[in-house]
What does this fold into?
Amino acid sequence: MPADLALVTDSTAYLPQQAVDRHRISVVPLSVVLGDQVLAEGVEITPKDVAEALRAKQRLTTSRPNPEAFAAAYRAAAEAGATAVLSIHLSAELSGTAEAARLAAAEAPVPVQVVDSHLVGMALGYAVLAAAEARDAGLDPAAAAEAAVRRSAATSGFFYVDTLEHLRRGGRIGTARALLGSALAVKPLLHLAGGRIEPLEKVRTAARAIARLEEIAVERAGEGQVDITVHHLAAEDRAEPLAERLRARVPGVREVLVGEVGAVIGTHVGPGLLAVVVAPVDPVVPVNPVVPVDPVVPVDPVVPVVPGNPSTAG
It folds into this structure.
């Protein structure tokens, strides 16, 4: 029965706790490595801790969950009566998290589908919610997975960072590396494309960059019904006014959330981040093969990641 489908995601979805509770979603945390401490996101380290550590120029890295963390989540789901699991995660281009989930899925006591959303933050969160709404409406696991994939393919994420330095250190900068030479002269706008962080535009000042971020979000939202999240790190004074302007300017907006990113993403973007996620509510797009739904045992797995290795995870 559809109600026997359990949903699992990771901590970088940054779902509101109310949504996690209402839809019975299991969240497996990634970790931040600070000195010799490995700290679980949302449990042992906060966004404020990360912002303070980065300002103090402390060395931070991130680590994906150990496959055993996913195995435990899948076992718990089965013990609670689930007959299938849908496990939806941040982009495999940014983290080994989905691969860890795949490794655990191969040994799970019930069938597990792993979806690489090619997204992160509430862009990922909206895909999880789409699956939850499909399941709760009585659809079967395959239809719930398709709903997640469909919303993933339609969702966009745009963001502004004060500096590219944190992305450079973490190795998540992609082709935006080309902007490093002029990093002092420009304020970069970036976006998620193909699961990677890519450059979008270069703007001369922070004020102009934020204004342009707003325009891009409004253009992307169009006239259809959308959900929007404004993310930030230690920049609530920028995020709240931006959210209010988007509420006023986007005709089809259903909900605008404001949420601080967690410790893991915060480590890679740094204080001052401002991001906008635009997610069509009922996207009419085909299932996009670039956002795959993986079988229980991957046919062509990527090179395994050493569990907990900060250099390849998170």
